[in-house]
Amino acid sequence: MRPTVHDVAGEAGVSLATVDRVLNKRAGVRAATVARVEAAIVRLGFVRDIAAANLAKQRVYHLVFIIPDGPNSFMRALERELEQVRSNSVLDRTEIRVVKVPAFDSTALVAALESLDPATISGLALVATETVGVRDGVARLRREGVAVVTMVSDMPASGRDHFVGIDNVAAGRTAAGLIGRFAGQRRGKVALVAGSMLVRDHVERRMGFDQVIQAEFPALECLPVLEGRDDAEIVRELLAQCLEREPNIVGIYSIGAGNRGVIDVLQARPAYRDLVVVAHELTDHSRKALREGLFDAVINQDAGHEIRSAIRLLKARIDGTRIVDGQESIRIEIYLRDNLP
Amino acid sequence: MRPTVHDVAGEAGVSLATVDRVLNKRAGVRAATVARVEAAIVRLGFVRDIAAANLAKQRVYHLVFIIPDGPNSFMRALERELEQVRSNSVLDRTEIRVVKVPAFDSTALVAALESLDPATISGLALVATETVGVRDGVARLRREGVAVVTMVSDMPASGRDHFVGIDNVAAGRTAAGLIGRFAGQRRGKVALVAGSMLVRDHVERRMGFDQVIQAEFPALECLPVLEGRDDAEIVRELLAQCLEREPNIVGIYSIGAGNRGVIDVLQARPAYRDLVVVAHELTDHSRKALREGLFDAVINQDAGHEIRSAIRLLKARIDGTRIVDGQESIRIEIYLRDNLP
DNA sequence: CTAGTCTTGAGGTACGTATATCTAAACTGA
DNA sequence: TCAGTTTAGATATACGTACCTCAAGACTAG
After folding, report:
1. Bridge pairing between strands A276-280 and A220-222
2. How many Å lie between the alpha carbon of B105 and the closest alpha carbon of chain A?
3. Are A117 and A146 in contact (CB under 8 A)?
4. Which among A101, A300, B140, B243 could bridge A282 via Cys, Cβ 3.0 to 4.6 Å?
5. Rounded (10°) CA dihedral A176, A179, A183, A184
6. Strands B147-151, B188-194: parallel, antiparallel or unpaired by DSSP?
7. Backbone dihedral region of B13: left (phi > 0), alpha (psi from -120 to 50 degrees) or beta?
């Protein structure tokens, strides 16, 4: 049988109360006694039963998720996953609050951070925009004992406990590898469609993409990025113009949330079906485009996985338990028509 | 606050003992009373606190994993993951026993199933080989109340509760899509290297591969399968001979556990570097081959995910709780050099 | 040495559920 | 209607941990 606090007390030759004081880091125990208890814990291999502890403690994990508002489909996917987790969360003593802030607006994000009372929340997950104010806000919460993870876009300087998301440079490199090889012998240009070059993940993807195209596919050349601001209308216009202007385009890399516009353009002319197209984010639209052969590959990160991972990481931080690294690494998923889930 | 059994008793106008009898399906309660209690549960949205219940019940989940012995690297990966879970499982009232049976030996598997006492185990996960004996053995355990999931290779007729694994036909189709497109304009033949055509997953992958090559890549033609029996030596010999014999091979699909032999052959001649090679299973060897450009893509299923998923599914079945579908679907992962985790 | 503080012990109650026992009430059949 | 059975209630204990109180023992400073 697993050892309990009673066994630890016996082994250390102290009372239950003392073991409890040591376990829960309460004051009033001599250093020598603390050492005795800790030695007993190690000898017995005692591990606190967190379920029982949480029951006794009446613990509720108060978690706050701050995510950008707006049309970005990945953010909306995160929101949907959160909603789903919330509806099932009666079971696991977890209370999740979702705070939406205007996208790309770090002032609003700072305000949201400041409105959080460290006393009432135990964990925070946020999609960070990298500014000093945000960094300081996060650092303050960390100092007050709040567990913090960043999602999608990292911010190491803030002292967050973990980052949940993919390596976007690698994602860009992956896209380039796919386009380069799918293009085969063809020579020509590649159009890049992004949301905005002010967002770190898009910048990083573009960087990785450029690296690989330049180094490995001399027959291809990247055109300047079209910034579609996550707006189908704008993307449609910019991309259509670009395809008119440049006769020699062989591929398109849709870096961010602009798939709808890209699809519209591709459907407009049969000739565009020969283009090699790689996009990000598996949605109903991109899935359909993949099945119909408009897209050749979609690179994805699993929103559900990211949400669940963030929650696990926050709880582990709060409980002081270990994590399984493999379970928390977010994969750069590649989908072709044939391996759609 | 969340309603408790006390609240249910109050709401239904019965005693705690009666609520307990209903919740735990014990006899001695009139149908009308059961209905009253159940109505109260619905009205209050009562959900049993499983942590508290397990604490009171002193429940330990006794899980048995039956996996094939032998050199198959994916099976060994499953075993390693199980070992890791076991070492962390002090925490979660889970006791995992791993039973290894000779690969492809259904008699041994049947014997292993028969040696299991349904009274002492609550869940079983097994890599099934499809025979009547195995099916009946599983069915017997199911009838006796044991939760059962099949892994890697399914067996629907056994009445198992779930299947944990990928769609191998789709995996084969995916491999074909990659080889076909990476080959570009080239015409020629594709060599297939499998472990054995007696194993369902290899057969299915081959089927999916053939389908897509025939339908979409008329310039390519599949050669007969080389059966390497998961043995590097045999694979090396067969594949080397094949490449000598057939001057016009443009690609290789390594269907199963034979990557070591394939890699040896590829390294032997610089000319072989131009071959398009897609293999299964991400291991140290295949990862290295990918980085060095010997392999063009590796298709993988995450062993850690499968083990964790099997455990979650078994526990959910035992506790009668719901599962999150998205979390349990095993993906057909594609790795290129650039998206290696 | 004494008063004061610091450290430890003993014991109880609580969390939400499971389970056992004993008793009382409500039915059933003849 | 009465005995016999079925159904229901009341109450207690337990699971492993947290946290509280009260009292007593061990120190420290003056």
Report:
1. unpaired
2. 31
3. no
4. A300
5. 60
6. unpaired
7. left
Q: A139 CB near a chain B CB, below 8 Å?
A: no
User: Could you tell me whether strands A297-300 and B249-254 are parallel, antiparallel, or unpaired per DSSP bridges?
Assistant: unpaired
Q: How far apart are CA A270 and CA A108, in angstroms?
A: 45
Cβ-based neighbour number of residue A184 at 10 Å: 15
> Cα separation of A174 and A155, whole Å?
23
One-letter amino acid at A285 equals H
Of B49, B171, B339, the CB nearest to A174: B339
The pLDDT profile of chain B, 341 residues, written as one tens digit per residue, is: 789 999 999 999 999 999 999 999 998 899 999 999 999 999 999 999 999 999 999 999 999 999 999 888 899 999 999 999 998 877 789 999 999 999 878 899 999 999 999 999 999 999 988 889 999 999 999 999 999 999 998 888 899 999 999 999 999 999 999 999 999 989 999 999 998 887 788 999 999 999 999 999 999 999 999 998 888 899 999 999 999 999 999 999 999 878 999 999 999 999 899 999 999 999 999 999 999 999 999 999 999 999 999 999 999 999 999 999 999 999 999 999 999 99
Hey, what are B6's tokens? Answer: 């006390």
B20: nearest nucleotide, CA–C1' criterion: C18
Residues 6+ apart with CB under 8 A from A44: A3, A7, A8, A11
Q: What is the pTM of this model?
A: 0.93
Chain position carrying tokens 């991400």:
B282
Structure tokens at A181: 């090889």
- 3-class secondary structure, B158: helix
| Interface touch B178/A54, C-beta < 8 Å | no
Beta bridge partners of B220: B188
Helix (H, G, I), strand (E, B) or coil at A335: strand
Q: What is the Cα–Cα distance from A9 to A17, expressed in whole angstroms?
A: 9
Q: State the nucleotide closest to B15 in CA–C1' terms.
A: D9
Residues constituting chain A: 341
State the best of A300, A321, A336 to mutate against chain B, taking most chain B CBs within 10 Å: A336
Phi, psi values for residue B195, rounded to 5°:
-80, -60
Residue ranges of the alpha helices (H) in chain A? 5-12, 16-23, 31-44, 50-57, 73-88, 106-114, 132-143, 168-183, 200-216, 232-245, 259-268, 284-291, 303-319, 325-328
Helical (H) or strand (E) element with B305: helix B303-319
Look up residue B289 and give its amino acid.
A
Tokens of A245: 């202007």
Write the pLDDT tens digit of every residue in A190-239.
Answer: 999 998 787 788 899 999 999 999 999 999 999 999 998 888 899 999 99
Decide: CB of B57 under 7 A of nucleic strand C.
Answer: yes
Angle, in degrees to the nearest 10, between helices B73-88 and B303-319: 50
Reduced to 3 states (helix: H, G, I; strand: E, B; else coil), residue B277 is strand
Burial grade of B325 (CB within 10 A; 0-12, 13-18, 19 or more): exposed
CA of B196 to nearest chain A CA: how many angstroms apart?
23
Beta bridge partners of A220: A188
Relative orientation angle of helices A200-216 and A168-183, to the nearest 10 degrees? 40
* Rounded Cα distance, A326 and B78, in Å: 13
Q: Are B210 and B173 in contact (CB under 8 A)?
A: no
3-state SS assignment for residue A170: helix
Nucleotides in D strand less than 7 A from protein CB:
6-12, 14-21
